[in-house]
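Customer ticket, subject: "Can you confirm the structure for 5-methyltetrahydropteroyltriglutamate--homocysteine methyltransferase?"

Message body: Hello, I'm evaluating your service for our small team and ran a test protein. I'd like someone to confirm that this is what the system normally returns, since I don't have a reference to compare against.
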Amino acid sequence: MALAHTLGFPRIGRNRELKQALEAYWQGRLDEAGLRALGRSLRAAHWQTQRDAGIELLPVGDFAWYDQVLAHSLLVGAIPRRFRPADGPVTLDTLFAMARGTGTRALEMTKWFDTNYHYLVPEFSADQQFRLSWEQLFEEVAEARQLGYRVKPVLLGPLTYLWLGKARGDAFDRLELLERLLPVYGEILGRLAALGVEWVQIDEPILVLDLPQAWKSAFEQAYHLLQQAPLKKLLATYFGALDDNLGLAANLPVDGLHIDLVRAPQQLAGVLDRLPPYKVLSLGVVNGRNVWRCDLEQALQPLRMAAERFAERLWVAPSCSLLHSPLDLAQEDGLDAELKGWLAFAVQKCREVALLARAVEEPGAPEVRVALAESRSAQETRRQSPRIHKPAVQARLQGLAASDWQRPTAFSERIGQQHAQLELPAFPTTTIGSFPQTADIRQARQAFRRGELDEAGYRAAMQAQIRRAVEVQERLGLDVLVHGEAERNDMVEYFAEQLDGYAFTRFGWVQSYGSRCVKPALIVGDIQRPRPMTVEWIRYAQGLTGKPMKGMLTGPVTMLMWSFPREDLPREQQALQLALAIRDEVQDLEAAGIRIVQIDEAAFREGLPLRQAERGHYLDWAVRAFRLCSAGVRDETQIHTHMCYSEFNDLIEAIAALDADVLSIEASRSQMELLEAFEAFAYPGEIGPGIYDIHSPRVPDREEMLALLHQAAERIPPERLWVNPDCGLKTRGWAETEAALANMVAAAQALRASRAQADEGGA
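Agent reply: Thanks for trying us out. I re-ran your input and got the following:
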């Protein structure tokens, strides 16, 4: 019988218990023993949940206190010197210092391939040494086995780990570290074998990338050495097709191969031809990254093809770790029956996997027949539902003209008009948009939703928070203000709630990193904006100050990437529908007298296909979607955009093609390294590189920020340089926010003074 397994499971808990425990620990309200006890409880519950759903081989090692790459860095001892304890072993506090920057600069953070999950980037030095330094994986294997579970430890592969890291200090090739790293892997595998483990899952998702030949050769070297370990190895790939790496992956000396048939169904034929029949073939046929119910009949087709050759060596799985899915649809008590019947969260996806594994062997079993009939009915109901298609939206897209995508005047001409109107000083200061989401704000929002606070009372409460944000910014001396977004629960959900075509869950949380969880909305049908979404709040805020107030919007690509999208319509069409809705909002803000509008595209790079050959089409429609939002304004209206936690080298031309007037980016954790791409390309617009890390509770002083500004001014023409934090401030407290912004303004003023003095000396 085909074996049902998973590659990973959500770790946050049914009610985000992990988030609450982490934050309690960081605030000193929970000790380490209590935190660890919570972790054991969550792991036990998640293993039992998967087994109850029919999963036979359970993942262990997919639990992490912050993220799995950081946990792996501790496992192999890749701990930068600034974090190493003066004496004794590494601890949980070491891990959290690396993640959060308590006491020193945190590790850089970026996106996990093309997902909205973040990981802490490993730092490697030329003299890097590795050693087994963290016992968590072995402790969890022992826990699971003691509870009677059949387990499969999950281990990040050595090549993927090195690929994800960055070289620091003297220049060197990260691949040179492989020879030093592999003995630690051998030790890890030996320890796991001694614990009674039969199978280990080694994740090598970089096998779906365009790899240099040296890295391909390194795979052969590495796995020929690791084959000596006394246990079986399942090589796991996901998020794309193996393509030119198929022969390499199929012939590595491992015992099984997992492939993603959701993102790349076309690769099955090649794998069936190339993978030796004595190996296990694991097929990811249930989508681990979206919430829609699996079409069981469609998923069965490749499984039946594979079963003809691999028989009992066929495994059935989700496409990737279920980390990217909400936990359990059964919690959702506010969804209508039709919509709920279209959905599946992690628990339901486990049941789908188990059902498909059984259907391969027993297609006529009553349980299988009933499940297939229910699946068929759900798919047909969804296709025929009137909530899906809106002819007016489709007609508007088809009626667009070339002028709808193009601002009438080039940046080099309109920027002068903007400067004359805004009258900003050199190195203008601003923030990215949000201010602290306090307990008072959350309580007012909850009371309003429960009906305990009427609309007038809610509006008054939010206006009070807006006044506070404006007063603080005026007192600190910022030049371009924001209203603080007190009324917004989330930068995507807030807009989605006001657009037709979206649906929402109560408990559909997924982890983004650490204690940060997001609850993506669901794109169910065609999207349109029935009424203005932000104008009232921004107009009120502008009325409180004579300084420019930015209108704050979320861009179409980010709205799409941070939602669970439709599967029946190309992403391009969904993005353009969103762009039309946002375009209307931009024009309404301009009509209300707002002179600066920021359209955040934090997820712009996240959508970039992993393969080079597929990127041109994505960048074309992603740029077109942004321009559709912004091209309808006058020359003197300044368009800003924001991107965070990305590498920009491979899409700098597309960012320039957005034709935004001002771009702000995360740059502090990389020490302005990200600006190299903008300098080399001679980026034409104005840029605000973030000069302090808002994800850390540490408040950097004026001198630290000024040093970063001087670095930025060496790469960006000073007349085009803005001063801002890395990202929004909603997760920070007011005390640290005010202290950090005061230092930021002081740094900008010091730079202005030094530049003015230099100009006078030159004259």
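A couple of notes from the result: The first helix runs from residue 17 to 26. The domain at 409-762 is CATH 3.20.20.210 (TIM Barrel). Feel free to reply with more questions.
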